[in-house]
Specification:
- This protein starts with 25 loop residues before the first strand and ends with a strand.
- Helix 5 crosses helix 6.
- Among the domains are: 108 residues, Golgi alpha-mannosidase II (Immunoglobulin-like); 137 residues, Trefoil (Acidic Fibroblast Growth Factor, subunit A).
- A hairpin with a 5-residue loop joins strand 7 and strand 8.
- It contains eleven helices and 36 strands.
Length: 651
Amino acid sequence: MNRLLTVLCVPLVAAGVLAASASAAMAVTVRPDPAYRQQPFEGWGSSLAWMAEATGGYPDAVRTKLADLVFGADGLNLNIARFNIGGGNAPDVPAYLRPGGAVPGWWKAPAGTTRADKDWWTPGDPAEFDAAADPNQRWWVDRIKNRVTKWEAFSNSPPYFQTVSGYVSGGFSATDEQLRPDKIGDFTAYLAQVVRTLERAHGIRFSSVNPLNEPNTSYWKTTLGADGNPTGGRQEGAHIGPSVQSQLIPAMAAALPGKVVSAPDETNPDIFAADWNGWSSPARAAAGRLNVHTYGTGNRPIPRDIAKGASKPLWMSEVGGSWLDRQDFTSMDPGLGLAGQITDDLRLLEPSAWVSWQPIEDYDNMKPGGESAAGMNWGEIQVPFGCTTSDCPIRTNTKFDTMRNFTHYIRPGDRLIASDDTASTAAMRGEALSSVVHVNSGTAEQDVTLDLTGFGCVRPGSSVTPVVTDVTGALKRGKPVRVTSARATLRVPARSVTTFLVDGVSSTAAGTGLGSGKPVTFTGVQSGKSLSAEGGSLVQRTTDPAAAAQRWTLTDRTGRYGNRDRFTVTNVGTGQVLSTAGGAVTPAPAGTTGAAAQWTLSTTGDGTWTFVNAADGQLLDVTGESREDGARIGLYRPTNGPNQRWQAVTR
């Protein structure tokens, strides 16, 4: 006989927490906020070059194990792969790129072709196209294609014959334009031909293509020796400034209709913003997704708000690092460093995907005497790139372990949500809170209390199970702890990363979030003064909690609880709606709901917000960074300045 089971939610009331143990430890409270949800997460990924180029020809047992460590369910469990379309140097150029860095080009040069011959290639000519190129990286494609749900193609440099210098490692000056302006169409045709060839040959489909990699930097320079051959420039790279990017991006979109063109894959948020601000309107329109790297970590909210203002998805498409000044496979330092990087990227950028540069690095290049005299610790997995035997040693470090605390438990389709703790990442699966990843970088144990009062449903028997990685082991599952009065406290070790698996907690509590209808005062982080509607304009004014002109209600016009929802912002005193006209902030009549009167609000979980206008992508900004009473409020592009951030207080 079947029975209908009714699941009851426990009313959420403040009460004492469940003690983790009798002994003292540092107390930390983590409050996930389901009223601010990021877009569905697309997943975790990796670029294939250089690791696939270096290892795809290894003995089968070795390369299979490596592929499983990166993309397998017990390994890093990645589901996104970025295929590197190599440019390739001229046939007469001797080898000088780093191991794995000499990614083959997809062209066939006539006999006797040299670096001086730069005008021989014809787009679409099968005699000049090598459809069998790059067998090592393509071995990886076949091995992982049933695990990869999203493919992106990207380029570090055009082929040598489409560059100004004639080399794929950059110009002779690192800031000179490297892509020949007369070859932009040929370059995009080359990339399109490779993409179509790979799709037909391997039965995969690229969802996106990116013709750029850290283009507006001074990284890429070729140095020639006395014999005229390169001595410097160890990898493919090309300086391409915003003006040429503006020509290249629409050309790429035209060459591959139906594919998303992503760009600019810039090295850090600030140069990303410089690229975007230098793009033409057609280039901005042609870019279907924005990609940024976080080798520089400052100002991550700028790409976040640029992407929201442009209504485009955003990926953190590359980062890697050592987080330790020596090669080391036991210290928690690199594991904690990577975990902190992931946590901050997800919180501050709000990307829909997080992509590693190279999970596999060259053990010989990382050891003392290699690339650095003291040794380095890049990659989660290290293997000698000169391996030729089936017993090739494979080593993992603690980055491999701590990354799995994220990639095993935050899955594609989950939605990351705000948290008031900068060391924690929370995720929902559907309406249920599924996991919270907490990084304890300190030297003391912590009693971590999950405050779940933001959720409307806590079933009887709800529990939290810890999965701990520290110096004693990886992904160690502990005993479940019951949720009591919407709270659970668990002790985590010092210098650890813990994933809390939550069962039985769901739904957003009623009356929470900025769209709840409750009046809110917004106080400037820089000035300490509040937004006030006065005399038909918007100013900052000394805060007066009783002043109706300083109180606002928000109405969600496009969704519910999403980090890209658009709100109308209505003044309690005047009934007018916050809007824009002619590049200025202006009040509009009650009931106005057009794009100029809609705002997307962003937060890092610290209680402060930015306002992104839906019509022009600019932010609410105190003009001239003024701290004066009565200073005008205007619009300006995202800067991450304190004059663009506002503390929200419900009145």
